[in-house]
Input
Amino acid sequence: MTGAVSGFLQQIFAKLKEADETVVLREIRGATFASVSGAALLKQVDGARYFLRVAGVRAGDRCVLVGSNGIRWVAMDLAIMAEGAITVPLYARQAASELAATMQDCQPKLVVCGDDTLRQGIAQAWPGAPGMRLLDEAFAGSPGALDAVAVVGEQKPVTIIYTSGTSGVAKGVVLTSGNVSHMLRCTSERLDLLMHGVRGQDRVFHYLPFCFGGSWILLLTCLLRGSLLTLNTDLNKLADDLRVVEPDYFLNVPALLERMRRGIDDGVRQKGGFVFKIFIRAKATWFAAPEGKNPGGVRLWLAKRLIFPTVRGQVMGSNLKALICGSAPLTVETQRFYDMLGIRVLQVYGLTETTAICTMDHPHHVEAGRVGPAIPGVEMKLGENDEILVRGANVFPGYWNRPEETAKVLRDGWFHSGDQGEVNAEGNWKISGRIKNLVILSSGHNVPPEPIEDQALQHLPGALHAVVVGNGRGYLSLLVTGNVKAEMVRTALDTVNSGLPHYKHLRAFHVCDEPFTMDNGMLTANGKLRRDAINTRWRNEIDALYQTKVGIAS
Output
């Protein structure tokens, strides 16, 4: 690769050149790895750049990249930015009609698809789509000698990442070279603290799609640090892959950590005998202690020495330094559960509009239930209704071709996040929920639903989702999905209600006979609830809760 670029791309290319024959990226393919060294990845980037030039891509053009995570996806992403074009990563599992609508919004010069089935589906949904090419085609030719890589100024856009759209309407978040450069400095500095004293490459495992902001930032951070990044290619094999990779850390969403927690509990329960007895009693001792206190006791002592290390090794390998968790708040109970096992969970808070991150837990100063302090160069404060406002080098310049939407969230130099929160004396933030999700009862009480939903799920092991409803009504009710019985829900709600003020009591419920999924439109691409869609789909059942008193909890 010749020439030079500014900011983060220059640093990444320099690091890859320095790595030379060291493997920096690999895919797990069954029992084998498909790997590339730093030099080999740079060669693939050159091939992709040549392909883009032949396709007529110029600086400032939008290029859609839609496909599963992989080495060639990474090479194409870097090539698009190196040519001065704007990469638009999209989620391959979205419906073709949704992908087509997003593409029509950004009007790309080129669409690069991961497979032919995807390409055909998009072509049918959008007959007038521009050049549609397969990712594999980009690496079929010989690049020859390439001239200098495009210079990317700090204020120039490098990507448009579309939000998941809990309302059903996705908006294109424009991020600049300056946004990304600042964020990569912050993430790398924080990982330096985590890996202090550890020699060699960071071993990082990854399964989240690169089209999501936080996932993409982790990818670039790993390239910048020269880490060994291993990509999962089959979500059904996550557990097996983790044991093979034995990572130092990896990025998660709360849903997976909750699932892993249940899996650990179930595995110990099935083992039975002495191990099960000690584990259950040690857990009871741990959770009975006040938060922040390290309890004693013989059973907990035995578990820490005989059981917890084995659990850690069997589930995540022996090298794990921390789990990193973002996209939504993690319950305190789940964070404390992993802490009990000797596994730190470092939370990250941010939105796509803030280049994915506003706060990060300090590796050595973690408070369960909080998401850490604001990262360097970022200011945060509370506005009306305890809304979190953000100002700094991480804040995006605006939405693609949506000046009115941009003006709504960028006001007086501050980004209005739409999230409710609080901050303590140590500067550690806590996220309460989304302002637009507030349930406003007919009594005038404003109720954030997320904390109540989390509590309900803690007492319903078989439940998949819980949604608080009752906007404009006289009391709150709950929709539940999963393998639960009515009597179980009544018991759980009695427990939850006992710790809540009267106006937050859940007084009725309905067990839905259909799960909430992305395919049926109840969840966004990254697993968040589409509350408007849920309320519409279950309108009759919700109405019945307020007319016939069906499913009333005591």
